[in-house]
Write a structure and sequence with these properties.
- By secondary structure, this protein is mainly beta.
- The protein is about 5% helix and about 50% strand.
- It has one domain: Porin (Beta Barrel).
- Strand 13 and strand 14 form a beta hairpin.
- The longest helix has 17 residues.
Length: about 400
């Protein structure tokens, strides 16, 4: 079944590549992921070399001298071992109307807020597609109506979000899962929260010289779930699953970025209520870029950030309570757009580490190769209820992707 679905995705992508309809673009790719170790749990699939196929075609059509635009971006993946990672999503299907004084977008869309590298605290509109990537940057499409009003006093963005999307989680047999595994099909809502609860958000942003500032407020169902243990075999045994529970929250956020010569200073901060006691969290840091390394075209960026999160144990779990991040970025500025980024986030108290390496390079006009690696060190195997990354401790991997763009 998986091989048939993969074949269909690739055929559709090939047809779209050769179609003469206006504004078709997108990509189809094969991912080859290799895990460094056998899985921790016996129920996990022991396949160490895991292939998967992914396709994301994109269609855009404008009319009325550019005043109207229709966007359609479906997404699909077939994975060899994880039935939850084999999934389809509608990333975008929306209509945009714009004029000089305001614009409105209605349908399914994606919105990104934030400036920091290691964690996107303020980015709350779209739900995380966790089975795609644990970095939180892959998002599910969100039904919305978005009104944007630019003015001399800044840009005002108002969002109405009529439907809630559940977070995706790996299956029992998959890798990079929690302990015990999350039963994403048994999600619950607290209080008056439900999937059709109307959520609202507003954001103001403005540029002052070399400084960009954004202030936002969100009211509705929080995208981060609390994870409650389920005891199928009695309370005197170990829990068999984790149940996602979604709460009504209010979150106020600030993001800011300032450039000063070769320096770029970044800040994201939030305060949130509705999940235990009100708490605050912040990510702050800087990036220094050296242009023209040793007389070449290569630019090198050095990154450093501090992560703090003051939530208590009744709130959704996070590994980023008190952490530091250091990284390096290379931009080769060549015709192939070669990029390289490496970074490590370290828990100040436990010395647990999450490392990331990403690299990409174009081949000709249509092809691109990408490398992604994640490693986990000093992850405690003894405290799964307090150490959310316990299940990741043997899941370090390297992934190679070859993609064709059209």
């Amino acid at each position: 079944m998986q091989s048939r679905l993969l074949f269909v995705i690739l055929v559709i992508s090939t047809v779209m590549t050769n179609a003469h309809a206006a504004e078709w673009s997108g990509f189809a790719a094969m991912d080859f992921r290799t895990y460094a170790n056998a899985p921790v749990f016996p129920e996990q699939n022991n396949l160490r070399f895991v292939p998967s196929g992914v396709a994301q075609p994109e269609f855009r059509h404008e009319w009325g001298n550019g005043a109207h635009r229709l966007t359609f971006i479906p997404f699909g993946r077939v994975d060899a071992i994880d039935e939850h990672r084999t999934h389809f999503d509608l990333r975008e299907l929306n209509w945009l109307y714009q004029n000089p004084k305001w614009n409105i977008r209605a349908g399914v869309g994606r919105v990104f807020w934030g400036v920091t590298e290691s964690r996107h605290l303020v980015d709350i509109i779209n739900q995380i597609d966790l089975v795609e990537n644990i970095n939180g940057e892959e998002k599910l499409g969100q039904p919305m109506v978005s009104l944007n009003i630019p003015s001399a006093y800044g840009n005002f963005n108002f969002l109405y979000l009529p439907f809630f999307r559940d977070r995706t989680f790996p299956a029992l047999h998959g890798r990079l899962r929690f302990v015990p595994p999350v039963d994403q099909n048994a999600s619950e809502f607290s209080g008056s929260a439900n999937r059709w609860h109307p959520d609202w958000a507003v954001r103001w942003s403005r540029t002052f010289g070399n400084v960009d500032i954004g202030l936002a407020h969100f009211m509705g169902v929080g995208r981060e779930p609390r994870l409650l243990p389920r005891f199928d075999n009695g309370f005197d045994t170990n829990p068999t699953a984790l149940i996602p529970v979604y709460d009504l929250i209010q979150q106020t956020s600030l993001d800011a970025q300032a450039s000063l010569g070769n320096w770029l200073f970044k800040l994201e901060a939030i305060t949130r209520s509705g999940q235990g006691k009100r708490f605050a969290a912040v990510v702050a840091g800087a990036e220094y870029t050296h242009y023209g390394l040793l007389g070449t075209d290569i630019d090198v960026g050095l990154l450093a950030e501090y992560l703090y999160d003051g939530r208590d144990r009744t709130a959704p779990p996070t590994p980023f309570n008190n952490d530091v991040f250091f990284g390096v970025r290379f931009a080769f500025n060549d015709a192939q757009n070669t990029q390289f980024l490496a970074g490590v986030t370290t828990d100040v108290e436990t010395q647990a580490k999450i490392g990331t390496v990403t690299a990409s390079r174009r081949i000709g006009e249509k092809w691109k190769i990408e490398l992604e690696s994640r490693f986990f060190e000093n992850i405690s195997p003894d405290h799964p209820r307090t150490e959310i990354l316990t299940g990741y401790r043997k899941d370090s991997y390297i992934q190679f992707r070859i993609a064709r763009y059209f």
